[in-house]
Amino acid sequence: MRVGVLTGGGDCPGLNAVIRAVVRRGIKEYGYEFVGFRDGWRGPLENITVPLGVDQVRGILPRGGTILKSSRTNPFKIEGGVEKIKENLAANGIDALIAIGGEDTLGVATKLADLGVNVVGVPKTIDNDLSGTDFTFGFDTAVNIAMEAIDRLHTTAESHHRVMVVEVMGRHAGWIALHSGIAGGANVVLVPEKPFDIDAVCKYVEARFETNYSPIIVVSEGAVPVEGGDMTLQSGELDAFGHVRLGGIGDRLAKEIEDRTGKEARAVVLGHVQRGGTPTAFDRWLATRFGLQAIAAVRDGDFGTMMALRGTDIVRVPLIEGTGELKLVTPELYAEAEVFFG
Amino acid sequence: MRVGVLTGGGDCPGLNAVIRAVVRRGIKEYGYEFVGFRDGWRGPLENITVPLGVDQVRGILPRGGTILKSSRTNPFKIEGGVEKIKENLAANGIDALIAIGGEDTLGVATKLADLGVNVVGVPKTIDNDLSGTDFTFGFDTAVNIAMEAIDRLHTTAESHHRVMVVEVMGRHAGWIALHSGIAGGANVVLVPEKPFDIDAVCKYVEARFETNYSPIIVVSEGAVPVEGGDMTLQSGELDAFGHVRLGGIGDRLAKEIEDRTGKEARAVVLGHVQRGGTPTAFDRWLATRFGLQAIAAVRDGDFGTMMALRGTDIVRVPLIEGTGELKLVTPELYAEAEVFFG
Amino acid sequence: MRVGVLTGGGDCPGLNAVIRAVVRRGIKEYGYEFVGFRDGWRGPLENITVPLGVDQVRGILPRGGTILKSSRTNPFKIEGGVEKIKENLAANGIDALIAIGGEDTLGVATKLADLGVNVVGVPKTIDNDLSGTDFTFGFDTAVNIAMEAIDRLHTTAESHHRVMVVEVMGRHAGWIALHSGIAGGANVVLVPEKPFDIDAVCKYVEARFETNYSPIIVVSEGAVPVEGGDMTLQSGELDAFGHVRLGGIGDRLAKEIEDRTGKEARAVVLGHVQRGGTPTAFDRWLATRFGLQAIAAVRDGDFGTMMALRGTDIVRVPLIEGTGELKLVTPELYAEAEVFFG
Amino acid sequence: MRVGVLTGGGDCPGLNAVIRAVVRRGIKEYGYEFVGFRDGWRGPLENITVPLGVDQVRGILPRGGTILKSSRTNPFKIEGGVEKIKENLAANGIDALIAIGGEDTLGVATKLADLGVNVVGVPKTIDNDLSGTDFTFGFDTAVNIAMEAIDRLHTTAESHHRVMVVEVMGRHAGWIALHSGIAGGANVVLVPEKPFDIDAVCKYVEARFETNYSPIIVVSEGAVPVEGGDMTLQSGELDAFGHVRLGGIGDRLAKEIEDRTGKEARAVVLGHVQRGGTPTAFDRWLATRFGLQAIAAVRDGDFGTMMALRGTDIVRVPLIEGTGELKLVTPELYAEAEVFFG
């Protein structure tokens, strides 16, 4: 049995842990051989392979990123792409393929499975917005990095009677903002799922200053004001050169709060620091277990499935289930954070 | 409504997060008043109270330990203890009591509930061995601390061609060893649930040295050799003064491996470092949600229950369910770690 | 003897450690009394005082920020400011004042000392650009935070064949960039002391991609291109609203590199995360020793001096020496980093 | 020019940073070739070499341990050892040797230099007890790890009204105890340089319990009671089996304090965790600069020297200066810590 492995989409702490677990169990328990495809779907598309054995996966568990590299290549958007992939899989004698990735990568996997390719998927997104699984690996690492930044910013906010706005990742779903905001003791958390009212935000800010503490606002990069919300600086506006402004919602929010409340406000945009580096224990454990179960699914011939965490169990669900629709923050969960607002 | 709160047993990162969430929601949403009882069950027993309001819980979220202090006092082992507690609760006008603790603390809570006291429990143990809940807070912090130590020890092991034995907490259950061992890339993990064969351990050690890497062995403090296992140094043996030896299983195992394999071996006993200090994001989030739901259970008059994590939901289960029997590492889960042995 | 203490300017990890050491030794060894002035020079200017004794300084050693809060108020820019300060010091029976701060705060201290106020200074700046001392506290913490971010970004850069630009603090001096760049293994470090040539930067970027690694560029916020350097996006340009653009050198550099090399480039602006939170061991040790020596200087009547680190000794230098001119990165030190470029 | 490199003695965070800097500058600026000798002096003794070029040193900067491995082999204790080394250096065409190590490794280097071998030394010890240099790399990392452990233990001590004893490295010198004790806010620090009075220690413990806080005692592994100090458990005593007891000074001190004060006391022995893993920014910077200067010393033919930190400069001192006598904690520096006792 020869098994191909690839990683697609944005990098995410834990990818290497998945690869290592797949290879270790595959070789030790099942006697399989492995082929690494580089740069996501570009690997099988352009037949870029790397050796993948016990030696290659030694020592990679604590390392962020992916030894197989990644890309956002989508073979369905390239003419003849799917055929190329089938040819290259055949040429390499691949019996099964393990695809590790997010919505896009698994979306391709889903379609390929329908076309008869033996694919097993492993879900990956630091945003935690894939359906079908309680959590995805990478998310816990991102939340801890954001929380540690918030912890640090509390003291600077208080020393200067200042508002600190922390922009975290999350274009469509507010999971990182919600969890890091709760864990970091934020006074306001803004998520894409619920457009915010700038007046209400400023009221929380002012309420907070009545204590001896200073407000921290955690905002998803995808958060937006309610329609008609009177923000001076709007999303997507152009600068003098006709380009979209570089500043995101964090910068704009800080400026707006400063203008409205007269309190000094500063934004911190955490950016890519959230997705790099060594994974937390939770992410290493989850990623390892996803890997162990993915290769077991290959052995069982259980193709077209994706690994998922349910409670403390790793289960297999149809690929389509994980990629059908985004998992969003519910109003009930958001209400939990609101207890701590102001 | 006046609600008492106490924390019992060993300290655990996240206790303050529970207290804060209980108090914040209780005051803000339900208009309750709170009384803090100090030192676990000793508080209501000896009527030691501390003020507990919004001011007392500010800034405590990231702090380890418990602002209410703790003890291992068991009122059922003290004559007239239960009556004293009832009297003191009445004297303080307490309508309901939230007890945050492990097996012992919640065991007392269970019996008091049977005797008509309005108790709600919040489970706490860094060992993660309470039934009824997927995880307890404090566990994730302990596992991360252990993992970071293991990460550090890998380089020292390799530089010196040396065996490193890491003893972690877990008297009865091997959860910390299992999770930190998997996350840290240990070459052997030994847990109380499965007595170990010292010959097999030494074989793994020797196999590991055939690579360019050096072995790390993670062992629960409660791990024991198989009966008849020929360990020179036995558990519980006395020293020259008739006291039980200070050295635990970690020290003894390192010595034994050194004697048998001729390889230098060193033990590191992580000890109390695992249970102190600031909680991880996961633990702050879980503890906060336990707190929010505990005070909601009080509001609902849902006494005799304990909070539990199931997937991503916080549910209420009968107190007896969480304390009836220990949750142990299953053979299936242990087998997952074994993939990486040697 | 009554001693006033204040902290001015931007917050900096270690301020609380100084305050604690001053108060602990002052009370325990010399029997002094203390008065805390809040918000930097605004405290004595507006007579805002807080109690300052052993109780107030307990537990503050590991905490970032300053319990005395801070501001950038300059009494010499306020009519009658100096007289107000003298009056308020007299009204509070202050015999000596310890001012903890950077160039501005110590500049005021220098002038007040000339006017006969008994002042002792403690230097503080995360930028490390104060003359007269080998290091200032806060700097080591900032460098470690930046280095940890760079460590994380390496994996994300490599997984995506991407350039990562990390903007760190340092308006006038490149110490944080230099030290974190060396410690983080950056491939290019850009500092304010040496205008950069964008062509050379792009050559390093391209050279790096010829290995299996991806480039990380660390840039001080105050770094600038050489005159006539053909950067599309210039410093200080206005946006559609006539405001200075929000994006700093990091954003602009990433865009420029992307345009020129065709390689994807992303910027991370670390911002205020660098100056908040718990200090490193070095900073706690240095700040504590500065505090111990500052109160000893008060006892010795050695006013008009500032504490300074020389090797492993804390010495006293004239205040003017520390504030006379900025300490800049020398060409020799910069050349050390250049060994690793490309 | 062919240059050999070896690392000897206990591992220490920063060794890889030295190796990398030596090789990078040596190849890039001077066009040298390198040979790595494995396992300290055993390498040239038994002619165990490894390739050492730009590829081998990529990515090793943040990694603890040493890619050249280490040992405590001393060629002067092996018959014909020195001749073997000379032969093997000649056989490999080695023009100069860079030896990175502590007292023992540099002691050998000193003697070899006297015998005409072209040696340059780089000092290394986490204990910081080498003369001639302000600091050695590895020390800052060890101190930070110890401090973080102490930070964690504060909360557990307070929650349980308990004494925590933290044993840190330092057989002959108390630098790690002193720095981590000051940085961690310890209530007592015990170092080898000053035998301790157990009565005085217990008085500090009792004084501390009169506040709302609990005592943390930091003790060097080499600390000893004053002669005649009435410790029940003496150093080096034998157990029932005629072996030296496993428990060190930390365990014994905790037991003694518990017996005398009636307060619960627990020991944590940090052990090898202090010397493994990724270096701090300070250590990476210092190690890198030592490496850069060591290869410059080779170029200058400045043999028989050792690199040393003086203030912020790296200077060269005669090898004998660094290894002649241990650098110990002075009474003046110890007195600084005493301000915070009790």
TrEMBL record, chains A, B, C, D:
Domain Phosphofructokinase: 2-297
Residues binding substrate, per UniProt: T125, I126, D127, R162, M169, G170, R171, E221, R266, H272, V273, Q274, R275
Site (Important for catalytic activity and substrate specificity): D104
Domain of life: Bacteria
UniProt subcellular location: Cytoplasm
Principal subcellular localization: cytoplasm
Presence of the UniProt keyword Cell inner membrane in the record: no
Residues reported to bind diphosphate: G10
Cofactor dependence: Mg(2+)
Site (Important for catalytic activity): K124
Activity regulation summary: Non-allosteric.
Pathway involvement of the protein, from the record: Carbohydrate degradation; glycolysis; D-glyceraldehyde 3-phosphate and glycerone phosphate from D-glucose: step 3/4
Binding partners and assembly: Homodimer or homotetramer.
Function of the molecule: Catalyzes the phosphorylation of D-fructose 6-phosphate, the first committing step of glycolysis. Uses inorganic phosphate (PPi) as phosphoryl donor instead of ATP like common ATP-dependent phosphofructokinases (ATP-PFKs), which renders the reaction reversible, and can thus function both in glycolysis and gluconeogenesis. Consistently, PPi-PFK can replace the enzymes of both the forward (ATP-PFK) and reverse (fructose-bisphosphatase (FBPase)) reactions.
Recorded family membership: Belongs to the phosphofructokinase type A (PFKA) family. Mixed-substrate PFK group III subfamily.
HAMAP family the UniProt entry points to: Phosphofructokinase_III
NCBIfam families, per database record: PFK_mixed (TIGR02483), PRK03202.1 (NF002872)
PANTHER family, alphabetized: ATP-DEPENDENT 6-PHOSPHOFRUCTOKINASE 3, PHOSPHOFRUCTOKINASE
Protein name in UniProt: Pyrophosphate--fructose 6-phosphate 1-phosphotransferase
Species of the source: Nocardioides jiangsuensis
Taxonomy of the source species: Bacteria, Bacillati, Actinomycetota, Actinomycetes, Propionibacteriales
